[in-house]
Amino acid sequence: SAQSTTDAPTGGVEISGVTKYYGDATAVDRLSLSIRPGEFLSLLGPSGCGKTTTLRMIAGFEHPDAGDIRLSGRSVLGLPPHKREVNTVFQAYALFPHMTVAENVAYGLQQRKVSKAEQRERVAEALDMVQLRRFADRKPTQLSGGQQQRIALSRALINRPSVLLLDEPLAALDRQLREEMQLELKLLQSRLGTTFVFVTHDQAEALSMSDRIAVMRAGRIEQLAAPADIYAEPASAYVASFIGQQNFLHGTALGGDAVDTFAGALRGRWGGEQGLPGSTAVAAIRPEFVRLAPAGTAEGPGVDGTVLGVSHLGETLQVAVDVGREQAFLVRIPAPGAPSVAVGDAVRCTWDPADVRIFADDGIPETA
Ligand code: ATP
């Protein structure tokens, strides 16, 4: 039942009320998501939250039990994968080892019986996209992991899909290469204007590349927003714990914008729905918003403790402070000009209430 709309721009993805069961388990639960044409959208969440299943339903490898999926305005539920204007890049690049790079890239065109001359031209163009034309005659085994992944990307782009689905394509690469590839992927995507739907469980990766991030939990989207907004205003403790680092102080909601914790009544601002007084709540404070002072010298909200460890993270210094709880309280201060801190120092961690977010306690573990 393909319902077509003529004015929908190419490359948009509309997922409406999609549910997918595997036996008794609900992998995707009434998920709705509208992906804009030309957008770089990441599906982010822990293992098992339904990211891959969602991607496989867009690709056509899995079929929803309920709901609809539209590509460029047209329902694709009745279409097999090869009839959808999408292509997929997987973590395992799945290059054919006995074929050259050029033959691997040309594979999709061969299947479609494109002429040899056009194949040559388009393979050159697709290899240029990933700056690997000079490797056209090599075999995949003669390439590094990063180069193999770029070939897989070039192979997926040769048919100029309006939507490219990427399932943790960088997960197998080492950290430095992964960061280079993140930049490269983002540049390629904006140059081509192709819609990218990118699955990852790596929040740094999602933050660095995406126009918007959909944070998933148990088959649903918990928050959909631009990276900066998710970072600054997470909608729940779950999202706050998943993006960046947090100190969570568990307690009880007081009337107004405050929560009663082991560190006293802390003021902050509610993220998500405000809890009733007496309900369980958490105060969340990011390590980079905490200041460190010698014990007894600082006023205002804070916690006292003893320095457990100091780690140098390049531009920042991370200080773990024992505040008498199960987990250390984390503080991040810019390394240049940082005060000298040593293990055993008695300190006070302080913050500005404007940097504190209060959330309903949704079961995230205590970290301070
Ligand atoms: P990961 O990052 O580990 O790939 P994910 O967020 O992509 O996780 P999915 O792979 O979509 O999650 O899986 C969602 C849920 O559905 C999980 O509980 C998983 O065990 C289950 N599931 C996925 N595929 C199948 C399958 N073919 N048969 C049965 N259960 C499945």
UniProtKB/TrEMBL annotation:
Protein family (similarity comment): Belongs to the ABC transporter superfamily. Spermidine/putrescine importer (TC 3.A.1.11.1) family.
NCBIfam families: potA
EC number(s) from the headed UniProt entry: 7.6.2.11
Residue ranges occupied by any ABC transporter domain in the UniProt entry: 13-243
Uppermost EC category: translocase
Gene: potA_4
GO cellular component, one term: ATP-binding cassette (ABC) transporter complex
Protein name: Spermidine/putrescine import ATP-binding protein PotA
Regions annotated as coiled coil: none
An MF annotation (GO) of this entry: ATP hydrolysis activity
Keyword Transferase part of the UniProt annotation: no
